[in-house]
Hints:
The complex is a heterotetramer of chains A (102), B (231), C (313) and D (530).
Chain A lengths: L11 H23 L5 H21 L7 H27 L8
Chain C lengths: L2 H5 L9 H34 L16 H30 L6 E8 L2 E5 L5 E3 L1 E5 L3 E8 L4 E5 L4 E5 L5 E6 L4 E7 L12 E6 L1 H9 L8 H13 L22 E3 L5 E3 L2 H9 L23 H12 L3
Parallel strand pairs in C: 1-5, 4-10
Antiparallel strand pairs in C: 1-2, 2-3, 5-8, 6-7, 6-9, 9-10, 11-12
Chain D lengths: L18 H5 L4 H29 L10 H36 L8 H20 L16 H4 L3 H29 L12 H33 L12 H35 L6 H14 L15 H29 L8 H24 L1 H7 L3 H31 L5 H28 L13 H31 L41
Amino acid sequence: MEDQQHHHIIPLKVYFSVIALLLVLTAITVAAAQVNFGPWNTVIAMAIASIKAGFVLAFFMHLKYDNKLYVAVFGTALFFLIVLYLFSWLDTVTRIGVNSIL
Amino acid sequence: MSTANHATAHGGHHHAHHYDSAEHEYNTSKFGTWLFLATEILMFGGLFVGYILFHEKYPEMFHDGSTFLNWRLGALNTVVLLISSLTMALSIYYAQVNKKNLTLLNLYITLGCGFIFLIVKYIEYTHKFHEGLYPGRWFNPTEPEVQEMAKHLLDQGHGHLNMYFSFYFTMTGLHASHVITGMGLITWLIVRTHRSEFGPQYYTPLECVGLFWHLVDLIWIYLFPLLYLIG
Amino acid sequence: MTPASTASHFMPPQASEVAHSVDVLYGFLLIASFISCVLVIGGLIYFAVKYRRTSPDQKSAYISHNTTLEFLWSFIPFVIFMVVFVWGWVVYSGLRTMPEDALEIAVQGQKWSWTFTYKNGRSVGAEFWVPVGQNVRLVMSSSDVIHSFYLPAFRTKQDVVPGRYTNLWFRAEKEGDYQVFCAEYCGDQHSGMKAKLHVVSREQFDEWLGNDPYKGLSAVEVGQKVYQSRCIACHNLTEAKNVGPGYKGIWDKMEKLEGGAEVKVDENYIRESILDPNAKIVLGFPKGVMPTFAGQLSEAEIMGMIEFIKSLK
Amino acid sequence: MATAAAPSGKNYLNEKSGLWSWLTTLDHKRIGILYMIAVMTFFAIGGTFAMLIRLELFSVGKTIMDARTYNQVMTFHGAIMVFMVIIPGIPAFLGNFILPMQIGAKDVAFPRVNLMSWYCLLIGASIAFFSLFYNGVDTGWTFYTPYSITTQNGTIMMVVGAFIIGFSSILTGLNFIATVHKLRAPGMSFWRMPLFIWALYSTALLQVLATPVLAITLLCLTVERVFGIGIFDPKLGGDPVLFQHFFWFYSHPAVYIMILPAMGVVSELIVAFSHKTIFGYKAIALSSVGIAAVSFFVWGHHMFVSGQSEVAGILFSFITMLVGVPTAIKVFNWVATLYKGSIRFDSPLLFALGFLFLFTIGGVTGIMLAVIGVDVHFHDTYFVVAHFHYVMVGGTLMAIMGGIYYWFPKMFGRMVNEFWARISFVFIFVGFNVTFFPQFILGAMGMPRRYYDYLPEYESLNKISSVGAWTIGTGFLVGLFVIIHGMLKGEKAGNNPWGAKTLEWQTSSPPPHENFLVQPVVTAGPYEYR
Lengths: 102, 231, 313, 530
């Protein structure tokens, strides 16, 4: 098996750069929320959150260096989550005559 | 099962009988942890899907609801969790380079961050309870303006304001329960580190608990803008 | 035997054209299913018998796969499935496309009865009337849990969801009486939540709609009618308990409430029990089971109920 | 690589003794036996409820119980059979026992998690049963809102119980995926895995990916009842149809959690008893994964009349058709495997053929129900009840029985009494058809499901159905007798009484603690009957 595979040790420098970046992104998302971009508010906030999530996944969770199987596991989970959302969403937006009576 | 994965003192770890090697055990444990994280993603994901669907249905209500949250406290908690993620990763790094004391220090900081996070959450929750902003059926705002706002939203067909707090409490509550679980696991890691069980040859529990802790952070990265910022 | 007549062996009588189209598709599916079952199960039995082991050292053939065959038996079912899918879609459009010029009836489901309200304000339960050959659209809502309005003879069904309206339409081709079921589980008397649809001629329908249903009836008889359409699922006319108490001998009785208080079954108590059923629950009965009938029964009907119960001493 | 040889005569059963050694065991085979005991107990309880249902429906009106009791009996029958019998039935019981051996591993990847999963099942089940003392539960196993938020208080316990059982299922699935990926014997490539492993692997994917959504749904339902959060409650602005989406997102894949492993068992049985290599190995293997993947996209066919939009309904109907194709492929391949075989009619094969017979009927009626225009009539009628019993009982339970008889020599080192095993098959098979075939007709006639009482015209078919149910009951009692008798008095079995080729038959019966005294090395496919 993968007996002799040497564990990758990520240099400290990388960890500290990533945390700096994450804190900056947090500041940006908070700052952006103070300005009203209309419908883009959600998009901007989610985009920044996803960038942050990507850095956590890649470096703190070592996905960048690890077996790609883990990426597949994570991706599959995400994919089926999107399936759950898309089909439920499809139902709610195509219902005809949805009037609340309460 | 005398040979089951039973760690002995002084860093010597015997891999379980059904594995070929320690490396084999490490890889399998990590794979198992990732599978577990996949289930966590889908579990939290269900709530996120519910949140987004209702957000599309009642955007005004979610907007008004989010004004009750203090984004400063939310941002503080984001920073706290991000730092705890860093220290968690660092503790693994120092185990890899065999520096027990630095591993311990980082684990303690991670645990401390968890406490700070919970204290801030406690402050936020009690504040909401004080104003009667309970979830769902128990929603009973004391402030007249809030009652007015809730009534206005309902009359306009923008939904029930209590639903915002339902989502807020369910999502942050489930997240907080994960923080508490993670803190329990980190405490367990601290005890084992004190016993010098981890080193460059064996740090699987650090790695697996670390992955869990990062996922908790990851979920908060999304919860923070969804609940506090865009509403 | 045509497919449709095969189908009607099991199905209730067809009351509409849509029902006929459903039955034709069902007949096709039945025959196709029968043929595939015969092929698979027949092949299975034939091979099993023919190739049974007759001697201990009997050898089997080494056949690992056959691409052509495998392609064929994947592709042919796929084509059949697509055909029935499109066919089903067409039939479904017929069931679900609401006609413009329909007679609209508001239907309300609540545990465990149906209420039908016509445009002129006429409101009935348990039985409702429509004219033959007329498009009818039911606008349905529920006041408590999910129910499902099911008309087997019309091959149609639609869940009735609290908090919103759902629609169902049909056009009866033949006069007659048809059964209505509740098809979504809704609690104790789910199986008792039935109604009858009477399809009558246009003249009879108009006459019925204009009628005062209680014309010339005494209060007791009015109560009896209300009982039969609204109360019968949960209350019987003996002293035995069903979901709720039986009506016989209940009048003037002193009943113990939860917590020890007592109440006398008089006009006020019956009236309150109809309009606010959970106000005073007699010991031994669960709370929250009976729905309110406030706004659904007229004063005359409530008086009728009181007189009716009085008459069952 | 090879571990120390076990002392001769030692096997997993007698290696240690005492109840405590069983309750704390980490050996996958012993855990498999623990599951067997648990599942058989639950099956007996669920079966008793089934008998009560059929007794009540024997005649119009009240026969033995009132409506409220009937609804609780119906709910417990459904919940027990689904959550505690059929879902853990094959993966957790047969899978636990067989999977590591079939891939040449010493154990599953995480033995402690495996044991924990069994305790989760027991704890969850106990909590669910405890609801009987709190007014019971009468929601049906589907817990539809808003009914489930307004009815008796026992519902919370049942929901929490199901939540915990869900974790049992997740942990088993997680364990199996890791085991299949990481612990295969040298030479055991994916394309050399037995088809039972492919089926269990696909099932495990479903368990891991779908069950968490059930968990969050049930969690929301619990807080809905306690705090009234209103997400599913229309009175507070929620959407009850959304609950159904969430619920069926799990529960449709769940029906494949129930049937896929059964298909795996049947593949093994047909190969072993026709003594012939499987026809279309890759097609069957891939169709398992294909069914698992597509099953995530079809849940809306449970909601054709629920108030879901028409567009969604048609889309779901289309995708449901696509699931039919890999299922049909499997059935054809099994029949083709019999062609030119050397077929031995032992009781396990009888169950496999019984499976094929019943599953074919269950399958074609499934297609009928997937046709949206026809389903509107059949939805929530006895036609659906008959259909899923043909698949779940006629399919899964037949496969479990066949699997038990097939692997019995491996588990206990003894043979079952062949004559009585065949008798149990005859009773179950005949009784099954007598019970459930009339229900197709009842459904076509329009009798809705979950009915305590019915119109007089449905009575004669219901009577036939009830008589059939008692026949099935007799069959399972005979089966239980066969199993217990086999354990105590059965003839000693050899290591490979059926002459099968998969790895579990290459070790002794019963196997030693670590399954193989010498690590097996795989050099060919699983079914090389040349």
